[in-house]
Design brief:
Protein name: DUF4235 domain-containing protein
Pfam family, one: DUF4235
Distance between the termini: 19 Å
Strand content: under 5%
InterPro entries: DUF4235
């Protein structure tokens, strides 16, 4: 039994992991900016009744927009590589990798 991942599996995992990691890293940067601007910690749970609406909305908008932008930037950067990501050319990349494996 071969448990070594194929090139296709590695590239698919990278295509999923890289945008996620970029999004999480962005959230950390946004947290530092939030602390510097408000002199408070960002809300751990914006949905909590103990979190004020303005803090919940501000934090959700900032992290949502920044995380989405980070994922978009990484997906666009990966679109020009052999890494498989969601997008219009994923089937073409899969076919090319399958031809390499043959």
């Amino acid at each position: 039994m071969n448990i070594t991942p194929s090139k296709k599996q590695i590239l698919m995992a990278a295509g999923l992991a890289v945008p996620f990691i970029a999004s999480r890293a962005t959230k950390g940067v946004i947290g530092k900016g939030y602390r510097a601007f408000t002199d408070r910690e960002p809300p751990k749970n914006p949905a909590s009744p103990s979190t004020e609406w303005k803090d919940a909305l501000t934090w959700s908008i900032l992290t949502g927009a920044a995380g989405g932008l980070a994922r978009l930037v990484m997906r666009r950067a990966l679109a020009h590589s052999s890494v498989l990501t969601d997008g219009y050319d994923m089937e073409q990349k899969k076919a090319a990798l399958e031809q390499e494996d043959e």
